[in-house]
From TrEMBL:
<dbReference type="Pfam" id="PF02866">
    <property type="entry name" value="Ldh_1_C"/>
</dbReference>
<feature type="binding site">
    <location>
        <position position="35"/>
    </location>
    <ligand>
        <name>NAD(+)</name>
    </ligand>
</feature>
<dbReference type="InterPro" id="IPR015955">
    <property type="entry name" value="Lactate_DH/Glyco_Ohase_4_C"/>
</dbReference>
<keyword id="KW-0520">NAD</keyword>
<keyword id="KW-0560">Oxidoreductase</keyword>
<feature type="binding site">
    <location>
        <begin position="10"/>
        <end position="15"/>
    </location>
    <ligand>
        <name>NAD(+)</name>
    </ligand>
</feature>
<dbReference type="GO" id="GO:0004459">
    <property type="term" value="F:L-lactate dehydrogenase (NAD+) activity"/>
</dbReference>
<feature type="domain" description="Lactate/malate dehydrogenase N-terminal">
    <location>
        <begin position="5"/>
        <end position="141"/>
    </location>
</feature>
<dbReference type="Pfam" id="PF00056">
    <property type="entry name" value="Ldh_1_N"/>
</dbReference>
<dbReference type="InterPro" id="IPR022383">
    <property type="entry name" value="Lactate/malate_DH_C"/>
</dbReference>
<feature type="binding site">
    <location>
        <position position="94"/>
    </location>
    <ligand>
        <name>NAD(+)</name>
    </ligand>
</feature>
<protein>
    <submittedName>
        <fullName>Lactate dehydrogenase a</fullName>
    </submittedName>
</protein>
<dbReference type="InterPro" id="IPR036291">
    <property type="entry name" value="NAD(P)-bd_dom_sf"/>
</dbReference>
<comment type="similarity">
    <text>Belongs to the LDH/MDH superfamily.</text>
</comment>
<feature type="domain" description="Lactate/malate dehydrogenase C-terminal">
    <location>
        <begin position="149"/>
        <end position="300"/>
    </location>
</feature>
<dbReference type="GO" id="GO:0006089">
    <property type="term" value="P:lactate metabolic process"/>
</dbReference>
<dbReference type="InterPro" id="IPR001236">
    <property type="entry name" value="Lactate/malate_DH_N"/>
</dbReference>
Length: 318
């Protein structure tokens, strides 16, 4: 893999859990942790340095200028929604935060990749694609639909009675965080359609409930926030960005990532092949007419939110 440097912007729970996951995976040479709060940053780095003992990874506090020269820049900083806050105000606050981060990072080295782990992931990914100067395929997001896809596959495997690791379920959760779309029409396990398996055919509604459950808020209610699942998925994405696969016989891994979808003119979560050159070709989906309609509705809503949140705050219509 060679020397690899990953910068994590945001030394909060998700950012530090990601740093720890990368340390344990041993796939990164150097990790830079960046945060505007110097005291929190220093404390997290001191703690993570102890975790790094006995590994081949260096972890240290870094500056935005140093981060901009990294191979992969992961942004985990975001502003949580306040209880009485409208969605539009929350999105705008996070766009302003992203603008300040981007101003501190620019210019970014041209071979870098940016992974957005902040919410709302589709809007913020779209914003950074427009402003960084990097190719669109080098700026992508990891959001709730990435994790929902993993949960959906686990549910299908368990419900079908799969007992072995080689029993592979294939289903995607695409669309937006607010409007997830389960690709049930083409879902299968071991190349067998779920619609032909009695244990699964009549349980689409169950899977829809699992995907649409407010899992993140429930975890936050119980323990204050959800970060391990987010960090674990981010670490796998980062690792895929760094691996140079020289075996043409092996296809690159597929992740559901927030990317710009040309046919829908919006950033949405879609399955794509991920390599050290970024998010490559999108996986072709065989959607039902109902799923296609839902995906278009997700694109319309994401576009509305993105365009509306870009207006000056004084012009908001609450």
């Amino acid at each position: 893999m060679g020397h690899s440097k990953v910068a994590i912007i945001g030394a909060g729970s998700v950012g530090t859990a990601l740093a720890y996951a990368l340390l344990m995976r041993g796939s990164v040479t150097e990790i830079l942790l960046v945060d505007i709060s110097t005291s929190i940053l220093q404390g997290q780095v001191l703690d993570l340095e102890d975790a790094a003992l006995g590994t081949n990874t260096i972890i240290r506090a870094g500056t935005f200028n140093e981060a901009s020269q990294s191979d992969v820049i992961v942004i985990t900083a975001d502003a949580p929604m306040n209880p009485q806050e409208s969605e539009l105000k929350w999105v705008k606050r996070n766009q302003q935060l992203m603008s300040s981060i981007l101003s501190a990072l620019l210019p970014i080295q041209p071979r870098a990749m940016i992974v957005v782990g902040s919410d709302p992931v589709d809007v913020l990914t779209w914003q950074l694609q427009e402003k960084t100067g990097l190719p669109r395929h080098c700026v992508f997001g990891v959001g709730g639909n990435t994790r929902s896809t993993a949960r959906a596959r686990a549910w299908i495997a368990e419900a079908s009675g799969a007992r072995h690791r080689e029993d592979k379920a294939s289903v995607y959760v695409v669309g937006s965080g607010q409007h997830p779309v389960v690709t049930w029409h083409s879902a299968h396990i071991n190349n067998r359609s779920v619609n032909t398996i009695p244990e699964l055919a009549d349980h689409r509604a169950t899977l829809e409930r699992i995907v649409n459950s407010d899992r993140g808020n429930e975890i936050a209610r119980l323990k204050g926030g959800a970060w391990f699942g987010r960090a674990a998925m981010l670490s796998r994405v980062v690792e895929a960005c760094l691996v140079k696969n020289n075996d043409d016989q092996l296809p690159p891994p597929v992740f559901v990532l927030s990317v710009y979808v040309d046919s829908l003119n919006a950033c949405l979560s879609m399955p794509v092949y991920l390599t050290h050159q970024g998010a490559q070709e999108q996986v072709q989906l065989n959607l039902s007419s109902e799923e296609e309609k839902a995906l278009k509705e997700a694109a319309v809503e994401t576009t509305r939110l993105y365009e509306t949140s870009m207006i000056p705050p004084a012009e908001y219509q609450q």
